[in-house]
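Researcher: Let's run the pair from yesterday's discussion. Sequence first, then tokens, for each.
Model: Starting with the first of the pair.
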Amino acid sequence: MRIFLALFIVMTISTFVGAAEVAVGQRLVEANCSRCHAIGLEGASPLAKAPPFRAVVKRYPVENLEEALVEGIVTGHNEMPEFTFDPDQALAIIAYLNSLKVAK
């Protein structure tokens, strides 16, 4: 019985921590990315050539973005500014992007 209780507590805490990390990531992309990109499950991007994040996560493994988020994302076009995040912020952004993959 204690083992089941311990597993339940661990799973509950993990779910809460995961949800909190996703929420932090969502706030970060809202503040830094939503000016150009659609960051949610619906809607068009404000900048037509900026792909919606829900499409990006289907095309690219978001875990590969961790280093770029920390070292600075630079793209080949001038419209996108360079962004840098600390490692915890990068992980939160990746958690949020992953949440877009599993949602339908």
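Model: Moving on to the second of the pair.
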Amino acid sequence: MTKLTLTAVALLFLTLTACSKSMDKPAAGTPAATETAGHTHEGWWCAEHGVPESMCALCDAKIAADYKAKGDWCAKHDRPDSQCFICHPEKEAVFAAMYEAKYNEAPPKREEEKK
């Protein structure tokens, strides 16, 4: 085979096998399945829920399972108790401080607040 053919085959293979977060579909009925539409998960901050993406149990079913396993879960609002700004409004300030420390500005309004 020529180099051009090998290159084309390699590119096709990479294109077909590439991993993409947008292709990962959460299971139906999980918090991630019901609340991820409308924003990406590639940045550091989850503007929809007001926490870092790496901690957002509403966007990632695995993270939610970890919080549940630790006993940190608000069953009433289906989110980690440590992130339940409904039951614990003071906790929102803790996460806002994390954002402010990183970006030197206030975090964007949560999507939930805009509704």
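Researcher: Give me one sentence on the second I can quote.
Model: The CA atoms of residues 74 and 81 lie 5 Å apart.
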